[in-house]
Amino acid sequence: MPPQEFVPHWLAPLLSAESADLSGIFLRLGMCVLLGFLVGLQRERTEAGMPGLRTFPLITLAGGVFAIIGKMLGAWVPAAALLALLGLLFFPQWLRIRQKEPDPGITTSVAAILMYGVGALLVLARMEIGVVVGGVIAVLLQFKPEMHRLSDQLGAEDLRAIMQFVLISCIILPVLPNTPVDPYGVIRPFNVWLMVVLIVAISLGGYIAYKFVGQGAGVLLGGLLGGAVSSTAATISAARQVKENHDLLSAGTVIILLASTVMFGRVFLEMLVVNQEFFVRSAAPMLVMAAATLLPALSYWRQARQTPPLTAEAKNPTHLRTAILFAAAYALVLFLLAAVKDGLGDRGLFVLAFLSGLHDMDAITLSFARLASTDQDILADGWRYLVVAVIANMLLKSAFAGILGGWKLGRHVAQAFAVPTAAGIFLILLF
Predict the structure, then answer these.
(1) Closest by CA position to 314, among listed 208, 183, 201
(2) Quick one: angle between helices 376-405 and 249-274, nearest 10?
(3) Mapping DSSP to helix (H, G, I), strand (E, B) and coil, where does residue 181 land?
(4) What's the whole-number mean pLDDT along residues 195-222?
(5) What is the pTM of this model?
């Protein structure tokens, strides 16, 4: 930084904590040009006759320059420049509207105004904010065909699922209290519903992916996407289809095993979001279990390639009733874990983990991950309880396969699940 006596008085406001030297200022202005060039390049290729490769860098740079001048002379300077930009953008838009076949789209004009704002952000705020906003603008402009195709393919039920997720996450969650409501201090309504939002978000992502890919996918991708929504639901769906057509026996087995493998992916994601340390402690044994589940699936897949197509079905996972039931189950498991740990110790936790795994893996995983943040015993040995829950969950799926799909499907699934079950018992006893 140059000595203060050599700094012109009009430059002094620029040498602040936000921009400690001239190199910082030029870095920000250079980023204005770079982001403007990125957006201008995209517009140049798609919108002939509109601001493009040269104009967008100039607009973004103008935002940065006038923001700098505004720091010296007042906020009216960038505001006046913005009004001038609006006038310049209005004139060509007005000419386009007067054409015989007008195309009054305003995307490019709105992008130009936003890029002026990005230039100002790069100077006045943390540079990362402007970079992210500019990158988002470029991505939104580039993927116009894909976004329109997505909108056209979404049905009424799909839009309903998205809006129900908005209800769950943006309307209900913020108003819930974040204070304990139980004697053990483990149940906080906000935290409970936050876990609901996490689970619904994971399932909704799988549901949307399945709607666009899964129905036309093969056995492998169909099983993976079905498991992303619900491995138990995928098991039931596959078993019913095998019951109707015994030629689908191998394909149904693959669907069930792959969906159960994806279940481990959900478990990993839940642990990672809720408690990273618990994730690190539990990752290795759970990876062993996942690999032991995947290997039999690949073996059956060789036979399934010669059978008719079969995919898992996916239903809307965002119903409010489903969310409330999961919240109740999660809160109950959380409370029971604390109570059993306090009253019965580790043996009681194994029993509770087994019973919870018969119902659902999400609630027990989230509960252990949450309690592990305050309980060192669960942090160290929580993975053992999760392994027991996984074994119970696989027993339930084997039962569903046999009851709904016939004894042959049940036998194949049970034999395949015997591999991860043996691996899990080995891990619990010897490690």
Answers:
(1) 208
(2) 160
(3) coil
(4) 72
(5) 0.68
